[in-house]
Amino acid sequence: MSETKTNFIRRELVNWYREEKRDLPWRHSRDPYHIWISEVMLQQTRVDTVIPYFERFIQAFPTMQHLAAAEEGDLLKLWEGLGYYSRARNLQHGVREVIEEYQAKVPETREEISSIRGIGPYTAGAILSIAYGKPEHAVDGNVMRVLSRLYAIEEDIALPKTRKTFEQLVTLLIDPEDASSFNQGLMELGALICTPQKPKCLLCPVREECRAFEEGKTDSLPIKSKKTKVKKITYSAYLLQRADGKWLVEQRGEGLLAKMWQFPLIEATDTSWQERYGITWIDVESIGEVTHKFSHLTWDIQVFQGKVEQKENAQLGQWVTEEELAKLPLPVPVQKMMRLRVDRSLEN
Ligand code: SF4
Fold first, then answer.
1. Angstrom distance (rounded) from CA 88 to CA 36
2. Cα 296 to Cα 141, 232, 259, 292, distances in angstroms
3. Tens of pLDDT, residues 220-241
4. Domains of the chain listed by start with CATH number
5. Closest CA to 304 of 269, 329, 328, 268
6. Which atom of ligand 1 is nearest to the CA of 210?
7. Which end of the chain has less Cβ packing within 10 Å, N or C?
8. Measured from the CB, is residue 206 less than 6 Å from ligand 1?
């Protein structure tokens, strides 16, 4: 790697970041706990979406001790809508580990920090560099895209083994004097300038040394193979009320959206579900459809709403008031269903 190119990229990237960085709430803090929260929230979620979540979260759990002591329901309620709920649970678990095993101080070495639940190589590098100024790599998809273009690296960034190439490259490139600005500069460049489509090369601070720009390869890099096909599942969801106005809900088990709450969500082939919830129809109608995409799966849901009678012997479900429903952690597909609801009290 040419010394001149390395120095140029370091200097221009760090200067550009210092001048152009967005004013984001987590950038006002060097508290490793705050950086940790922001990095977990930012995985797969847009910055604009994360800002209010981050602010509410810090207000509710200003220290690791507050988060460690939180009820899981309160934690999930604050995370509601961000998705990837296992991350919230892992964050709480990780914070408890830091309190118990590291005297409530987030460790400063990659080896120790990587042993904490939920902290992978990227989050470890982000916390170490941003909070502690350590020259540690923090490589995610954004960073791989930028570096693929800068160095015309033609390795498939969808393959897990490719990440190592980029981690080694960042380790050589990173500014030891200001690792925080360097890593955040790479991330910021990927978010604002070197975007997946139509990178804004004319505004780019490192264009002079960019091989993809020089060789006209900005559209063909990075190389990213397509993911395997997303599976589809068709469900019916039932938003059911008893005569006293209470809603039938249930808590999910382990796995996808673990422990979140939902209305009965029934696979299309299941014909005996009403017995398990101990209900009989009075008046139920279709109120619309909801589609929800996870990374590996799509749910197509036909949504029904109606009045039912409760019999004895229900094996599943709980009945809650409208106020109780509002306090439960509800995943995004269920929130979408809530927005379809028709006010039945105005009818008849
Ligand atoms: Fe990305 Fe263009 Fe800058 Fe190269 S010049 S790093 S392709 S924005």
1. 11
2. 17, 9, 20, 11
3. 999 998 877 789 999 999 999 9
4. 3-215 (1.10.340.30), 231-340 (3.90.79.10)
5. 268
6. 4
7. C
8. yes
Residues recognised as catalytic: 39
Rounded CA gap, 41 and 49, in Å? 9
Q: Which residue's CA is the closest to the ligand 1 atom numbered 1?
A: 194
CA of 207 to the centre of ligand 1 (A): 6
pLDDT higher than 90, residue 109: yes
Question: Sorting pLDDT into bands at 50, 70 and 90, what band is 166?
Answer: very high
Cis peptide leading into 222, omega within 30 of 0?
Answer: yes
Task: Map residue 97 onto helix, strand or coil.
Answer: helix
Nearest ligand 1 atom, CA 145: 1
E strand or H helix that includes residue 48:
helix 47-60
Is the CB of residue 131 less than 8 Å from the CB of residue 31? yes
**pTM of the complete model beyond 0.85:** no
- Give the pLDDT confidence of 126-146 residue by residue, as tens digits: 999 999 999 999 999 999 999
pLDDT digits (tens, 9 = 90+) for 236-271: 999 999 999 999 999 999 889 999 999 999 987 888
Question: Does the beta carbon of 336 lie inside 6 Å of ligand 1?
Answer: no
Q: Mind listing the pLDDT tens digit for each residue in 85-104?
A: 889 999 999 999 999 999 99
